[in-house]
């Protein structure tokens, strides 16, 4: 790492080290040995608040990281998700003189580049800030990257990359994959967001995809006044989408607006393959005639055709409420482990679909499933590959906005109607039949190829010339633990025997020294049998673990959830299970939409 990165590493370590030590003790009470500690929800929430304060202290990179983590229930427990959802990308703007330097370096003297320029920023964010100006007789929004932010971000990214192997030692193996993909995704996303030339390209492409839809407004790019660090756009005014009282005064149909928003993102992801990936309320506005306005395309992404097809299959399975097909689609997309408990996941999906449809759910079902899911969602066999992480972010944030507009909004009906109108569901049936024909064809071919191979194998057995190679999959390190116990046991036997011999034929002091070694070996061996991370496997998320958690929490749950809290638990609890179609995760996002400050201008990051 560079000198700045080394310096930054110690600053970051100073902020995070106390929490990391606490997490280490959660896994082994005495760091090296000992049983795991039980951590209460209150403790997790207190730690989440401390971690949030550290991120605010560390600045732009970690603010962005916290925002990304707020949409990753596969990485963090629900208490962290809820706390991080309050993290707003709004910081005081850099002094105008510093921003003027950036504009001058990119476009020349400000007075020559623009007819008028207001030096007071209308929006300040961690990576850039937005100003109002006039160019060729029209109002424009000028987005300027913060001075020197690139050096800080690069140093922080090096620190994160260097720290990741260390961090892996403090998390469960179930979270390792998600953490690695999260780090890669975050580095890509934040670098893309600092590249205003890329943002301009994505903005223009998405604008062209909606050119024939009058209900959608996307600002135009002023190319001659845009560079890699300065982006000049058409200024489009509007009322922030979460200001429902103002929308009601304008006479806007909020249910129809929510439907428009959902259909727009379905088109982006399913049809176009390029999408606006930061739909929080500060980046969405509504004009007096109900036109939906999009701002800030710094965070945007693409969906490859394979994932598009699987998302269509996923939505189609949801429309038909075919739970097995839903799970199959999740496995094929790489978001669900093939070894997951399908029966348990089926229960979760059924409940998530019922919640997304706004159906009444019996209270005992919520207590038996959703509260357990809410506590263990980050331990689920659900993982987010990099090509789906932004899609999930979009789905969960859009869902939160739609719920704010219409608490009874039915995401599944809108998705089903869109798929039917675009011909995807019928196409899915046709593709299913074609796949089955392919399966029959392959089965016929296999019936011809298998007998000769079987005869060859039997001949090898008859000649006693058949060899079999096996590979032991020891992901839980059971053999390693057995080897350690065997070594410690042999050492204990040797030291015990030595102690006896020394006591009989030598001095008491020598026997005492040997006895201490024997006692130490005995303690280590005893603790290894008490450690849950050893041979006794811990269920990740199965019916057994649900029953255990339900038994432990039954007393605390009884009477703690009224009708309204039950609904909130349903929405937030299934965050990772079905966020792709909107229903789960609304609790966190409603919090986000309520706390986002008012904005009626472009360029909010």
Automatic annotation (TrEMBL):
<feature type="compositionally biased region" description="Basic and acidic residues">
    <location>
        <begin position="545"/>
        <end position="555"/>
    </location>
</feature>
<feature type="region of interest" description="Disordered">
    <location>
        <begin position="540"/>
        <end position="605"/>
    </location>
</feature>
<keyword id="KW-0812">Transmembrane</keyword>
<dbReference type="InterPro" id="IPR011009">
    <property type="entry name" value="Kinase-like_dom_sf"/>
</dbReference>
<keyword id="KW-0472">Membrane</keyword>
<feature type="compositionally biased region" description="Basic and acidic residues">
    <location>
        <begin position="592"/>
        <end position="605"/>
    </location>
</feature>
<keyword id="KW-0418">Kinase</keyword>
<dbReference type="Pfam" id="PF03109">
    <property type="entry name" value="ABC1"/>
</dbReference>
<dbReference type="InterPro" id="IPR004147">
    <property type="entry name" value="ABC1_dom"/>
</dbReference>
<feature type="transmembrane region" description="Helical">
    <location>
        <begin position="486"/>
        <end position="505"/>
    </location>
</feature>
<dbReference type="GO" id="GO:0016301">
    <property type="term" value="F:kinase activity"/>
</dbReference>
<dbReference type="InterPro" id="IPR050154">
    <property type="entry name" value="UbiB_kinase"/>
</dbReference>
<feature type="transmembrane region" description="Helical">
    <location>
        <begin position="511"/>
        <end position="529"/>
    </location>
</feature>
<comment type="similarity">
    <text>Belongs to the protein kinase superfamily. ADCK protein kinase family.</text>
</comment>
<keyword id="KW-1133">Transmembrane helix</keyword>
<keyword id="KW-0808">Transferase</keyword>
<feature type="domain" description="Protein kinase">
    <location>
        <begin position="116"/>
        <end position="444"/>
    </location>
</feature>
<dbReference type="InterPro" id="IPR000719">
    <property type="entry name" value="Prot_kinase_dom"/>
</dbReference>
<protein>
    <submittedName>
        <fullName>ABC1 kinase family protein</fullName>
    </submittedName>
</protein>
<feature type="compositionally biased region" description="Gly residues">
    <location>
        <begin position="569"/>
        <end position="585"/>
    </location>
</feature>
């Amino acid at each position: 790492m560079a000198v700045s990165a080394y310096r930054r590493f110690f600053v970051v370590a100073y902020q995070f080290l106390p929490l990391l030590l606490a997490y280490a003790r959660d896994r082994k009470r005495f760091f090296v040995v000992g049983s795991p500690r039980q951590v209460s929800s209150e403790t997790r929430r207190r730690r989440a608040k401390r971690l949030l304060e550290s991120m605010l202290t560390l600045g732009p990179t970690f603010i962005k990281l916290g925002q990304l983590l707020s949409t990753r229930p596969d990485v963090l427990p629900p208490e962290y998700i809820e706390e991080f959802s309050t993290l707003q990308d709004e910081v005081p703007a850099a002094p105008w003189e510093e921003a003027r330097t950036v504009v001058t370096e990119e476009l020349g003297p400000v007075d020559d580049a623009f007819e008028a320029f207001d030096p007071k920023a209308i929006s300040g964010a961690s990576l850039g800030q937005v100003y109002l100006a006039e160019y060729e007789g029209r109002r424009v929004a000028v987005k300027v990257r913060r001075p020197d932010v690139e050096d800080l971000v690069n140093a922080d990214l090096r620190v994160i990359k260097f720290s990741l192997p260390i961090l892996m030692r403090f998390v469960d193996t179930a979270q390792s994959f998600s953490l690695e993909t999260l780090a890669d995704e975050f580095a890509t996303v934040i670098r893309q967001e600092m590249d205003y030339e890329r943002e301009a390209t994505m903005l223009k492409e998405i604008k062209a995809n909606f050119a024939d839809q009058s209900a959608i407004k996307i600002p135009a790019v002023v190319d001659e006044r845009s560079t890699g660090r300065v982006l000049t756009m058409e200024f489009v005014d509007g009322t922030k989408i979460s200001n429902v009282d103002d929308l009601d005064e304008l006479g806007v149909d909020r249910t129809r607006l929510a439907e428009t928003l959902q259909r727009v993102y379905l088109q982006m992801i399913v049809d176009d393959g390029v999408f606006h990936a930061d739909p929080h309320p500060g980046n969405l506005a509504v004009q007096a005639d109900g036109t939906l306005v999009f701002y800030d395309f710094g965070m945007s992404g693409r969906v490859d055709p394979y994932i598009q097809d699987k998302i269509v299959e996923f939505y189609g399975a949801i429309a038909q409420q075919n739970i097995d097909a839903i799970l199959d689609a999740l496995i094929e997309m790489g978001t669900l482990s093939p070894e997951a408990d399908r029966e348990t996941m089926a229960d979760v999906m059924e409940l998530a679909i019922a919640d997304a449809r706004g159906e009444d759910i019996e209270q005992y079902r919520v207590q038996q499933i959703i509260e357990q899911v809410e506590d263990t969602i980050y331990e689920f066999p659900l993982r987010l590959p990099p090509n789906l992480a932004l899609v999930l972010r979009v789905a969960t944030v859009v869902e939160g906005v739609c719920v704010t507009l219409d608490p009874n909004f039915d995401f599944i009906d809108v998705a089903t109607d869109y798929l039917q109108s675009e011909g995807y569901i019928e196409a899915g049936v046709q593709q299913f039949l074609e796949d089955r024909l392919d399966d029959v064809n392959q089965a016929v071919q296999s019936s011809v190829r298998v007998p000769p191979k079987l005869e060859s194998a039997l001949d090898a057995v008859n000649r006693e010339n058949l060899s079999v190679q096996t590979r032991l999959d020891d992901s839980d390190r059971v053999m390693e633990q057995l080897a350690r116990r065997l070594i410690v046991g042999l050492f204990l036997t040797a030291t015990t025997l030595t102690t006896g011999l020394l006591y009989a034929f030598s001095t008491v002091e020598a026997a005492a020294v040997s006895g201490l070694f024997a006692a130490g070996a005995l303690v280590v061996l005893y603790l290894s049998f008490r450690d849950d991370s050893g041979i006794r496997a811990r269920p990740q998320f199965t019916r057994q673990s649900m029953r255990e958690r339900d038994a432990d929490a039954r007393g605390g749950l009884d009477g703690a959830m009224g009708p309204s809290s039950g609904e909130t638990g349903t929405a937030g609890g299934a965050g990772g299970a079905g966020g792709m179609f909107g229903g789960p995760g609304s609790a966190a996002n409603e919090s986000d939409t309520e706390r986002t400050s008012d904005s009626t201008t472009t360029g909010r990051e």
